[in-house]
Amino acid sequence: MLQDAEARFRAAGYPLEEARTALALGRVLRRLGDENASRAAFAESLRIFTKAGARAWIAVVRAERDGADACRAPLPDETGAWSEQLTSTERSVVARVAQGATNREIAAGMVLSVKTVEAALTRAYRKLGAKSRVDITRIVMARPTV
Prior knowledge:
Order of helices and strands: HHHHHHHHH
Helix content: over 70%
Oligomer: single chain
Mean pLDDT: 83
Distance between the termini: 31 Å
């Protein structure tokens, strides 16, 4: 069904929907154990999102392609949501990082200094056990929020 939907979006000229469908297909194929087909679907999704300049989606696809579940850092409490561990500012910063925003873009959007964003992100890294922005994206995509 996803392959059919992807072809229909392509024919209708909806590239972002086509790419989102390819991403979903890649996830399903990975769960079914077809790693080669999964990687091909992720590559197609990444190609379309890159062409469209959709940075947040590019980060999501890369995290999935690189095996989000296999590589993500474990949270201290695997049963809770990632957002339970963070302050409201840290949650907002982490959510924007997961969408692909730079520290400067986050600061401008939240009306904060870049230093404040950096400090909140540093605390969030420690609390979530993340080592990079990609880890943050993986955690956000793999875990529910409150």
